[in-house]
Amino acid sequence: MSIIHYLRLAAATMLALIGLAQPAAAHEHPMSFDEMIEALGWDFDATPITTEQVGDNLYVLFGVGGNIAVSVGKDGVLIVDDQHPAMIPKVAEAIAGLGGGAVDFVVNSHWHFDHADGNIALGEQGAWIISQINSRRMNRVDRSINLVGVGTYVQQAYPPHALADITFNDLMQLHFNGERVDLLHFGPAHTSGDTATIFRGHNAVHFGDVFNAGYPFIDVDNGGSLDGMIAFCSAVLAQIDTDTVVIPGHGPVSTYADLEAYIEMLSAVRERVAALIAEGKSLEQVVAAEPTKEFDQRYGSPASLLDRAYASLGGAGG
Ligand SMILES: [Zn+2]
Ligand SMILES: [Zn+2]
């Protein structure tokens, strides 16, 4: 598969998740899983796993859902995020193609279905699942996710075997395949349980959905916040350097400069939306003021970001 094709797939997945690929549908009631994947344009059967090498033994897999980082080496296989059970056979095939065997460790960047549902298959197969402590808590109960412009999806509680076996609060370090792997949590951001995974030997970081190639979705109803997104990204930026490979939750592999630009964008939008809220503007008035205008060409439609930014900054409602 060509690079263009998989970038297109990755972009489609990302855009779909933040509500751009389909016209806004007024779902009064929570969507079923099947309704949601139809609205997102997902097709587990038709979508292959494609692989991009980003280091000696570090790879990114693209499929349906969040990007998967894979470390393959003498200690075994560690992955960050696992998409969906229907994709796991294809993920396993891709890992076998890289010389790896069964997955030993799964790090969940966070608990959202498009990053962690694969736990249901991998937990059963004996992989050790690791997450930030709040992320595991979220997976233990049904959680309603407001996918702005797409609908509301109630992510069901995971069965015990799909819950994290090992949790941490702010920092965990693994020494695996010849490098130190830092799992870092810097407070609420995209959700309340996000992890950035830094592969120190490879100088690469997997961000989960705190950093996306397009405008982010902020799960404000589940502890996320715009200020938290900016703080989290800035904290990771301080941990890496200009050569670091930056793997977003969705979209193509990116750079330090991309992350820097993203933080500047979020900070500018935050200031503008906060000022408009202080003037008593409604959400509709904030949208009409186009506070993201010069960024839209790069990041896409701001509808979801503005809706969640408004909620996050305490806007009164439209
Ligand atoms: Zn995601
Ligand atoms: Zn997410």
Q: Could you report the average pLDDT, rounded to the nearest whole number?
A: 92
Largest sheet, spatial ordering of strands: 1-2-3-4-5-6-9
Give the topology string: H per helix, E per strand: HHEEEEHEHHEHEEEEEEEHEHHHH
Bound molecules: zinc ion
Shape: globular
Tally of helical segments: 11
Walk me through this protein's architecture.
A hairpin with a 2-residue loop joins strand 1 and strand 2. The strands form 3 sheets. Strands 1-2-3-4-5-6-9 form a 7-stranded mixed beta sheet. Mean pLDDT is 92; it is low at 1-16 and 18-25. The radius of gyration is 18 Å and the shape is globular. The chain is built from 11 helices and 14 strands. Helix content is 33%, strand content 20%. The protein has one domain: Ribonuclease Z/Hydroxyacylglutathione hydrolase-like (Metallo-beta-lactamase, Chain A, 4-Layer Sandwich), CATH 3.60.15.10. With 318 residues, it is of the alpha/beta class.
